[in-house]
């Protein structure tokens, strides 16, 4: 049973907060600055979405708003992991 | 019949979906596709697509990223607008080919909206159960989940799947539209072939010209400037062919560096090098590739464009990717696999030269027979062959490879015993309301199973099949969940016992000999 639970929960849980490593530990370049800025905004948005999802989670996924929040949450997570700049 | 394909991956994945678009259209479907705007260009020219819908990340995520909580309402409204517009299309089928959590929620939302309107929509590919957990409705997607891509390669050994992504995409879509069948002619370029930009054509030679794609979506999927310069220059010298360098705008600097190195280090006149890196649009590339005698590339979108127009490819494939899944499909293409030290340059140059001049040399790792080739069961890697026969036997009913050593037999025996314990405990669980003892034993069974498979990596495909099948059990009554688990356990036991008995027979034969 454990396997089923762990597999299902891995996909069912909201995205975890993941730290993105910054290779250059010196002064960030302008490119790195803009990436850090984007990362910061992505993190902030992720927290907002999770907090909103938490507030209404009792309703369940039959509610449209909950599904929209899950899509937004995963979209943010894709951006954070892929670090793509198409949000600009 | 209206079909929506969700393809939210990159350029190369969209090109690899072209054969599926065509097969669906031939089966009578009106084909729509949902893509990201950045990769929308890869749908241009595919006559089988009736309508392209865009997942506008900027419009959807922009407000919440810019205005925080105040922007969330606008972000939700933009997303809602997109999903409502898709729902208004009244699709009969949804085919999700993206394999990502986000796409699974999109597919699920579209199913729920259709349901709310009193319409049933058949969906294949990842979606969600009513409790929000991942749903994998079709067997082909379950195969993908278990044996393809990063999840499969996270276990010891390489990715084992040998079915190309275009064929997998089509197999998944076939779950929604059974009448569709792939044909070799589904691999063809745009119906309107486009005009060749004469200024980008290299000088004419007896052996034509070859193209080199200097980039890829990730650095590890391609080579550095020095290696590409050496390959391009030495192949030019050995074959007498001219060269066309291709790449995106982001790779412009790399293209210049390669051209400079070819000139400075190998004495190639710059007038003989056409450096088109950063100077082409997607529509320019198809006609150029069609004219090329050969494309040399790593794991990149251009490989799939070449496969569509039938141009042969010499694919330099890093071990971090799988050439079986994303390699070239045009007949006569070859694959050279390399590890951390990079490819053997002499091999690459010899192979490319033979392909350009018609020479008989062959020392590549694989030659491609065509997009619908029979999947190779024998390669020069016996370990990989064993695992593929295992996967192929499990999913496609081909003959299993027979285990040939005591270590594997011991692991099989241990797993058979563990599976028997599980079956007994599951039966017992049916008779009681709840039992912490049984639950604890079942958890221990799972731990031991994982340990057996960790100690014997050749069993990894079967372990992944097992965990995937369990994850497909959706939320339902306890009795139904247990029954499904028992059915999975029974299937597992048949496979294990079959393997064990075949191996034991072999063992005895070896002793008799």
Question: What are the SSEs and their pairings?
Answer:
The complex is a heterodimer of chains A (88) and B (513).
Chain A: H1 2-12, H2 30-56, H3 64-82
Helix pairs in contact in A: 2-3
Chain B: E1 2-6, H1 11-16, H2 18-26, E2 30-35, E3 49-54, H3 57-67, H4 69-88, E4 93-96, H5 101-116, E5 122-124, E6 127-128, E7 134-135, H6 139-147, H7 149-153, H8 165-176, E8 209-213, H9 225-239, E9 242-246, H10 252-266, E10 273-275, H11 282-291, E11 294-297, H12 301-309, E12 313-318, H13 323-326, E13 334-338, H14 345-357, E14 366-367, H15 382-396, H16 406-431, H17 436-455, H18 460-471, H19 478-512
Parallel strand pairs in B: 1-2, 1-4, 2-3, 4-5, 8-9, 8-11, 9-10, 11-12, 12-13
Antiparallel strand pairs in B: 6-7, 13-14
Helix pairs in contact in B: 2-8, 3-4, 4-5, 6-8, 6-18, 9-10, 9-14, 11-12, 16-17, 16-19, 18-19
Short note summarizing the structure:
In chain A, 65% of the residues lie in helices and 0% in strands.
Task: Give a quick set of tags describing it.
heterodimer, A: 88 residues, mainly alpha, 65% helix, elongated, disordered N terminus, B: 513 residues, alpha/beta, Rossmann fold, 3 domains, 5-stranded parallel sheet, 11% strand
Description:
The complex is a heterodimer of chains A (88) and B (513). Chain A is mainly α. Chain A has helices spanning 2-12, 30-56, 64-82. In chain A, α2 (30-56) packs antiparallel against α3 (64-82). The radius of gyration of chain A is 16 Å and the shape is elongated. In chain B, β11, α12 (301-309) and β12 form a beta-alpha-beta unit. Chain B has a 7-stranded mixed sheet with strand order 10-9-8-11-12-13-14, sandwiched between helices. Chain B has a 5-stranded parallel sheet with strand order 3-2-1-4-5, with helices on both faces. The longest helix of chain B is centred in the last third of the chain and has 35 residues, at 478-512. Residues 508-513 of chain B have low confidence and may be disordered. Chain B has 3 domains: 2-186, 3-Layer(aba) Sandwich (Rossmann fold); 198-367, Glycogen Phosphorylase B (Rossmann fold), CATH 3.40.50.2000; 402-512. With 513 residues, chain B is of the alpha/beta class. Chain B is globular. In chain B, α3 packs antiparallel against α4 and α16 (406-431) runs antiparallel to α17. At the A-B interface, α1, α2 and α3 of A face α3, α4, α5, α17 and α18 of B.
């Amino acid at each position: 049973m454990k396997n089923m639970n762990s597999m299902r929960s891995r996909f069912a849980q909201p995205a975890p907060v993941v730290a993105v490593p910054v290779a250059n530990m010196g002064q960030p370049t302008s490119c790195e600055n803009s990436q850090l800025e984007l990362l910061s905004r992505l993190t902030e948005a992720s927290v907002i979405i999770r907090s909103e999802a938490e507030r209404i989670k009792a309703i369940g996924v039959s509610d449209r708003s909950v599904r929209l929040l899950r899509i937004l949450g995963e979209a943010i997570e894709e951006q954070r992991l892929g670090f793509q700049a198409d949000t600009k | 019949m209206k079909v929506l394909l969700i393809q939210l991956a990159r350029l190369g994945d969209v090109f690899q979906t072209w054969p599926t678009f065509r097969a669906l259209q031939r089966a009578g479907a009106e084909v729509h596709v949902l893509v990201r705007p950045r990769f929308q260009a890869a749908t241009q020219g595919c006559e089988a697509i009736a309508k392209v819908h865009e997942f506008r990340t900027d419009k959807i995520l922009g407000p919440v990223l810019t205005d925080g909580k105040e922007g969330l309402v606008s972000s939700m409204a933009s997303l809602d607008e997109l999903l409502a517009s898709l729902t208004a299309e009244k699709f009969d089928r949804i085919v999700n080919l993206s394999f990502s959590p986000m796409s699974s929620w999109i597919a699920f939302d579209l199913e729920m909206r259709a349901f709310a309107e009193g319409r049933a929509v058949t969906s294949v590919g990842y979606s969600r159960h009513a409790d929000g957990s991942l749903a994998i409705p079709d067997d082909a997607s379950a195969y993908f989940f278990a044996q393809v891509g990063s999840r499969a390669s996270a276990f010891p050994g390489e990715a084992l799947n040998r079915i190309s992504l275009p064929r997998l995409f089509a197999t998944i879509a076939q779950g929604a539209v059974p009448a569709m069948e792939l044909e070799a002619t589904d691999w063809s370029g745009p119906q309107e072939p486009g005009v060749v930009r004469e200024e980008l054509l290299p000088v004419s030679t007896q052996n034509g010209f070859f193209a080199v794609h200097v980039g890829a979506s990730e650095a590890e999927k391609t080579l550095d400037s020095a290696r590409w310069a050496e390959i391009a220059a030495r192949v030019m010298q050995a074959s007498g062919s001219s060269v066309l360098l291709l790449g995106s705008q982001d790779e412009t600097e790399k293209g210049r560096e390669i051209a400079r190195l070819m000139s400075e280090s190998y004495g190639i006149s710059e007038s003989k090098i056409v450096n088109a890196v950063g100077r082409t649009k997607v529509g320019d590339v198809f006609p150029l590739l069609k004219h090329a005698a050969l494309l040399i590339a790593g794991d990149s979108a251009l490989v799939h464009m070449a496969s569509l127009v039938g141009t042969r490819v010499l694919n330099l494939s890093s071990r971090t990717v799988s050439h079986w899944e994303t390699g070239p499909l045009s007949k006569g293409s070859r694959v050279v696999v390399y590890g951390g030290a990079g490819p053997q340059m002499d091999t690459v140059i010899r192979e490319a030269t033979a392909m350009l001049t018609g020479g008989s040399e062959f020392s590549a790792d694989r030659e491609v027979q065509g997009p619908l080739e029979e999947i190779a069961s024998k390669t020069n890697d016996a370990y990989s062959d064993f695992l593929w026969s295992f996967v192929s036997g499990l999913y496609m009913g081909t003959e299993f490879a027979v285990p040939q050593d005591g270590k594997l037999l011991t692991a099989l025996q241990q797993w058979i015993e563990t599976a028997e314990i599980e079956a007994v405990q599951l039966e017992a669980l049916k008779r009681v309301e709840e039992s912490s003892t049984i639950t604890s034993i079942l958890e221990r069974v799972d731990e031991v199973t994982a340990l057996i498979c960790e100690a014997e990596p050749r069993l990894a495909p079967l372990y992944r099949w097992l965990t995937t099948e369990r994850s497909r059990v959706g939320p339902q009554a306890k009795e139904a969940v247990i029954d499904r688990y028992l059915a999975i356990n029974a299937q597992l036991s048949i496979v294990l016992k079959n393997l064990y008995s075949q191996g034991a027979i072999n063992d005895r034969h070896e002793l008799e000999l």
